[in-house]
Amino acid sequence: MKQYLETAKIVATHGIRGEVRCQYYCDSAELLCEFEELYLDKKGEKPVEITRAYPHKNVVIMKFEGIDTVEAAQKLVGKTLYMNRDDLELPDGVYYIQDIIGLTVKDIDSGEVYGKISDVYQNGATDVYSIKKENGAELMFPCIDEVVKKIDLGAGEMLIKPLEGLFDED
Question: Domain span at residue 131?
C-alpha cells in the first residue's frame, strides 16, 4: 500500500497573493480543507504547510506557507498534492479508492478469479466496481454487503458473492 495518496491537483493560480486552485480527488472539498499539511511528492519528502484553504465553486483555494506571489504559485501549477494516509483515520470497512484499484476479485464460494478492479465509479447511493478480465471484457458490480463479502488489502484480494445473473454472459 502506498503511504502517500493523491488527493488533489493544482490547476491554476488564484489572485495575486500566491493562492492556488486545486481540483480535489477526495470525497469533498471540505475534507481537503481540513489538512494542515500536504506533500508535493509521492514519497512525502516535500511537505507544504497550508495556511488557508476554502471551497470555491468546484475547486479548493489554497494558500501555502512561503508562497506569496502569483509567480511563485505559477511554478506549482500542474503538480499533484499527496496526503499521508496516517493523517486521516478511516472507519472500519471504508477504504481508499487507490487501495481498491488493482485488487484481484474472486468468487467466495468457487474461488473463480474474475479479474482485477480497474476503476471505481462513485454514483451517489453506492460505489460501483469495474473489473477488467484477462480477455479485456469489463464486469461491473455494486459495492454492497450482499455482493462484497471480504476485502483483504494485505492479500490483494476481494471476495464477492455475485447476485444471481450479475455476471451472466448472454
Answer: 97-160
**pLDDT at residue 170, as a whole number:** 46
Q: How far apart, in whole angstroms, are the C-alpha atoms of residue 80 and residue 165?
A: 41
CATH of the domain at 125: 2.30.30.240
| Same domain for 19 and 77 | yes
Q: Residue 72 and residue 125: Cα distance in Å, rounded?
A: 41
Please name every residue paired with 8 in a beta bridge, in sequence order, or none if there are none: 24, 81
Q: Please state, in angstroms and rounded to a whole number, the distance separating the CA atoms of residues 138 and 167.
A: 10
The strand ranges marked E within 40-123 are 47-56, 59-64, 80-84, 104-107, 113-122
Average pLDDT of the residues of the chain:
91
